[in-house]
Amino acid sequence: MNRNTRSRAAGLSAVCAAVGITSALTQAAQGASLSTDLVINGGFESVNAGTTAGYSATEVNGGWFDFAGGSVFAYNYAQNYDDRDDLGTVPPGNDGSSATNYYFTFNTNDTAAIQNIDLSTGDTAAAILAGTGQYDIRGFFTNYADDLELGRLTLEFYDGDPGVDGFGATLVGSAINFDVTNSEEWEQVGGTGAIDSTAQWARIIVDHNTASGSSSGPDVYADNITFQVNVVPEPSSSLLALAGASLIVLRRRRH
Question: Is residue 209 part of a domain?
Fold first, then answer.
């Protein structure tokens, strides 16, 4: 192979590699990936420090919106508003004395923080359509001092984009609620479950559980909200063989 041929081959290889990389990036951008946190700004760290609205708080950017059209706000841990009586711990990845680590607060209004997630394309869509999609949602909650309010993490599935008000599509099944029980420390709530094969969008709601009472305003705080779609693991061939052998032994004993 002469120098010109080698040069052309090298150039062609580089082009192919670039095309492959571009194709992979395009594919990744076109659909939500499995076993990947799909929440944008789930730690509420993307904030606009210039917006205070009269409070020692900062407006949160990215991912989250307020159903009533207001602002979603965050406090920093250095302010010590969050209730951590005995253990004094904060959600993983945060510093309890940090002025640059933030968490969500309802202090400015009594409306939920909401995020819609598109599951209609990519690996998630394939798994859900095949009936093997499983959700995993988690979140940390606490409140202010000795207030009565407790948080609630809600997950909903829709057959299309639910929009801002949730009426842009049809709710699939029922809302799944995870209620906070500990008002004295940061508590993680959440869980896993099967996703209906008709679901195309997920809607995450960070809210105040009104059944828990109220003390001069819904001072519910939340942080580290995560959501991902996994594939329900299929039983391995060895487990199936073992199950089959056990069934044969059981039948022989009965006879």
Answer: yes
For residue 187, what is the domain's CATH number? 2.60.120.260
**Nearest residue to 106 (alpha-carbon basis) of 164, 49, 172, 55:** 55
Residue ranges making up the domain that contains 145: 37-231
What are the tens digits of pLDDT across the range 137-190?
A: 999 999 998 888 899 999 999 999 999 889 999 999 999 999 999 989 999 999
Radius of gyration of the chain (CA): 24
Residue 166 shares a structural domain with residue 219? yes
